[in-house]
Design brief:
single chain; 101 residues; mainly alpha; 66% helix; RCF1; Hypoxia_induced_domain
């Protein structure tokens, strides 16, 4: 007996799984996703902006020859990066806790 080959995979239609109802695919643009994520965890963009601000101001001070202020701003940048990482971790934990409920 000749065995028939399975039908070719059609990527335009999802496979049918018993008991599963597929939801329509929602394409979210970059702007919409950025705004949604910023609303979910507003401390991360604040931390990113403060990190970038400290870095830019520190580089400007370094270029002008104000090495003391440049060092202070580089330390502030490290603190802002730490704040951003902490905000990310709090967001991850909050999302995990929300998913368990």
């Amino acid at each position: 007996m000749a065995q028939s080959s399975p039908p070719p995979f059609d990527p335009s239609s999802p496979p049918l799984i018993e008991g599963f109802i597929p939801t329509p695919v929602h394409r979210e643009g970059f702007r919409d996703k950025f705004l949604r994520k910023s609303r979910e965890n507003p401390l991360v963009p604040i931390g990113c902006l403060s990190t970038a601000g400290a870095l830019i101001y520190g580089l400007i001070c370094f270029q002008k020859g104000n090495t003391h202020q440049s060092q202070v701003m580089m330390r502030a940048r490290v603190l802002a990066q730490g704040f951003t990482i902490a905000a990310l971790m709090v967001g991850v934990v909050a999302t995990a806790m929300k998913a368990q409920k």
